[in-house]
Design the sequence.
């Protein structure tokens, strides 16, 4: 198809879609005005019923806790798929050297870059831990904190290079964290059923509002998500970065 | 507040167009990160800090890093450096 014909098809498609799009835009509620009652209900009931002040965590771990279980296992499946595909292609070999781009000079990193990575990586991991812990009181939660922890470790990759980073990322710990987190979520959902209550019933004491330990069962679910996401993203980064090793396809074993 | 939102919406459109118009993969990765940064600022301004956290960590850090690693992987020489120097 020539660019001219492609443009004509595009204009024709626009002419078909545009009236419908304009109609939808004209009937949308005004910016910032929401006609549905659910958000207001959650804001009204969250602190009274569950003693938490972060309503996003309330929705994720209590109102639609079952959906979050599904998301947890989606992440687990996605990470498992990536691991099977990539580990199968080049094999494990955690000690393999990184490859290099041909023609690019081998410039040593400056001491400042290395120092910044070494100083800020632990601080960012600590901040991620803080975000996981304060899920019930302030914005954040297991997912956000887990991703922050896994991403913060990448500063070591940028500052010290692949080999130091790979030594730091212990795959067995990351795998265990991922599996433990997902099964902790499922087990916390099953625990109320032992007492004859529905799946994921919030059976633990709710605690004081604005307290670190408020929200009851949501705390356990949040910890499960934190473990699973930190481990899952860690495994994801390890599997992708192992693609930069100087190992040919087939593993070279 | 409204001026800030207008500015952020405009920057979202500009950085989004930037992703589409950048043709070199390495630059496109940085354009995605820039768009993610603007989006996380927009979510913060719209009082959605939870989503802003996720967008900042996933859209600005994790996804561009994975794309960068894929680009590195396609351009890399697989002979170990110690052997190549001999």
Sequence:
């Amino acid at each position: 198809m020539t660019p001219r014909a492609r443009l004509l098809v595009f204009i024709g498609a626009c002419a078909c879609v545009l009236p419908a799009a304009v109609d939808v835009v004209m009937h949308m509620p005004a910016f910032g005005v929401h006609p549905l009652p659910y958000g207001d209900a959650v804001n009204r009931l969250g602190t009274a019923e569950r003693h938490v002040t972060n309503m996003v965590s309330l929705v994720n771990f209590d109102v639609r806790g079952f959906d979050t279980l599904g998301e947890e296992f989606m992440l687990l499946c996605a990470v498992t798929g990536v691991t099977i595909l990539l580990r199968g292609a080049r094999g494990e070999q955690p000690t393999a050297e990184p490859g290099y781009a041909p023609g690019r000079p081998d410039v040593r990193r400056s001491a400042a870059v290395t120092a910044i990575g070494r100083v800020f990586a632990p601080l960012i991991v600590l901040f991620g831990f803080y975000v996981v812990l304060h899920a019930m009181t302030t914005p954040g939660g297991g997912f956000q904190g887990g991703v922050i922890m896994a991403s913060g470790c990448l500063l070591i990759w940028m500052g010290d290079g692949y080999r130091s980073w790979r030594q730091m990322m212990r795959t067995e710990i990351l795998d265990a964290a991922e599996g433990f987190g997902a099964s902790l979520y499922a087990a916390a959902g099953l625990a109320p059923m032992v007492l004859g209550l529905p799946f994921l019933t919030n059976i633990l004491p709710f605690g004081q509002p604005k307290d670190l330990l408020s929200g009851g069962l949501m705390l356990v679910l949040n910890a499960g998500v934190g473990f699973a996401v930190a481990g899952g993203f860690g495994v994801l980064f390890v599997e992708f970065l192992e693609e930069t090793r100087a190992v040919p396809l087939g593993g070279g074993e | 507040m409204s001026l800030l939102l207008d500015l952020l919406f405009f920057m979202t459109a500009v950085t989004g167009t930037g992703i589409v118009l950048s043709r070199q993969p390495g630059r496109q990765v940085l354009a995605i990160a820039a768009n993610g940064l603007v989006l996380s600022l927009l979510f913060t301004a719209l009082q959605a800090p939870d989503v802003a956290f996720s967008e900042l960590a996933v859209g600005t850090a994790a996804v561009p890093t994975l794309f960068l690693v894929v680009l590195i992987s396609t351009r890399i020489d697989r002979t170990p450096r110690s052997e190549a120097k001999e």
About this structure: Chain B touches chain A through 24 residues (CB under 8 Å).
